[in-house]
Amino acid sequence: MQYADLLIHSADLMATMRGHSGCPAFGEGMSEIGLIKDGAVAIREGKITAVGTTEEVLAGGWVGSETIQISAKGKVVTPGFIDPHTHVLYAGSRENELSLKLKGVPYLEILKQGGGILSTVRSTQQATDEEIKAQTGRRLQTMLSQGTTMAEVKSGYGLTLDEEMRALRLIKELDNEQVIDLVPTFMGAHAVPPGYTEEEFTNYLIEDVLLQIAAHDQAEFCDVFCEPGVFSVNSSERILTKAKELHFKLKIHADELAAAGGAELAAKLKVVSADHLLQASDEGIVALAKQGVIAVLLPATSFNLAKNTYARAREMISAGVPVALATDSNPGSSPTESMPLVLTLACLYLRLTPEEALTAATINAAHAVGRSNQVGSLEVGKQGDLLILDIPNLNYLPYHFGSNPVGTVIKRGRVVWNS
Ligand code: IZC
Ligand code: ZN
Predict the structure, then answer these.
(1) Rounded CA gap, 81 and 377, in Å?
(2) Is 34 in the pocket of ligand 1 (CB under 6 A)?
(3) Which of 18, 11, 71 is closest to 38 using CA atoms?
(4) Half-sphere exposure of 391 (CA within 13 A, CB side)
């Protein structure tokens, strides 16, 4: 018998999220979280070997003298959170823009004046590799302490071939050097840098940068900030079509600030995920559902832009769009690392139930980063990434906000963080 390295047992509630690995949960399926009372999970060599009630797992004979045992009595166990949309690799910060925001200056106006994304491009370009990695590493550590065990990370504060390549190299190094698994996305189409028109920069990305990024095989996804005043639907389609030819998986920032047909483009290109979608049209939502595109919703961004506009998540779920949740962690529109905060905002303002929000932050988020066969649920054969939450029941997770509900984080069967 091969004994488990780690046994978590006696969890009041364990949300396994089982049964959704083949395709993302949608409609009423988003409420099916595979609950087990008095739950247990056994992990050996980083992978889950048994899941069930404590009695069932103990009867399976997984426990030997070397097995570390942790009781989750009075607590809730879930898969680790997966944050499928972040811009967490950068240097500097933008708290100086808070006063402009409070005076009502719009996000895109700050960018037009050379601030916003372009300000972070300057501070990132001026920073050394070590500085960028140290600052990003601290953010990743905060994410881990709040339960994130896998995160997508976008480039996009480089905006030249060399700087974008450097960003993707640093994401890879950080993936190897710290605990959270990182999924790299190339997002050269994040802003148009000074000295270019939108068309010139789009051509540069298509004819030069994308080819080189593909040749170096440094990014799995390609993403575009599709928004009037940044990259039009037409430019976005050109960039993403080229990326698809080069075998990138696709993501798109769509219909965040204006309704421009971003959701329709996402459906046309059958992207893996369309993100933001605050202004998505009825037709756009239906088209996303038809093509099985995942809507990655970012309520912390809506909250932080302070305009009281949130994505129409209930309509999306009714239409059959699979919904995932992410922080959008970035220095401008969402300076937070906290998935628990995102879950609270998703319940209060997107009107998700706690069960739907958990699905959106785990298994559907795993699908949004192309890792659903590896993480996102507690099932035999999956990576042993899970959380012991210091809460008495699932409602408590979105209910009690502003302090950390995470008691213990387990990554590949090892305790990597304790409160
Ligand atoms: O730095 O403002 N929305 N990109 C698109 C961002 C926000 C990041 C930023
Ligand atoms: Zn974003």
Answers:
(1) 10
(2) no
(3) 11
(4) 21
Mean pLDDT over each residue of the chain, to the nearest integer: 97
Strands (E), 27-83: 35-44, 47-53, 68-71, 76-79, 81-83
Q: Which of 85, 330, 334, 336 is the best mutation target for the ligand 1 pocket, counting ligand atoms within 8 Å of the beta carbon and taking the most?
A: 330
Distance in Å, CA 333 to ligand 1 centroid: 6
pTM of the model: 0.98
Q: Is 336 helix (H, G, I), strand (E, B) or coil?
A: coil
Q: What is the tens place of the pLDDT at every residue in 289-304?
A: 999 999 999 999 999 9
H or E segment to which residue 341 belongs:
helix 339-349
| Residue with token string 């000074």 | 194
Task: Give which of 363, 419, 414 is closest to 384, Cα–Cα.
Answer: 414
Which residue bears the tokens 């009781």?
71
CA of 201 to the centre of ligand 1 (A): 18
Tokens of 397: 């997770």
Please, what's the b/e burial string for 1-31 (b: 16 or more CB within 10 A of its CB; e: otherwise)? eeebbbbbbbbbbbbbbbebbeebbbeebbe
The single residue listed with the structure tokens 């994401």 is 171
Side-chain half-sphere CA neighbours of 179 within 13 A:
23
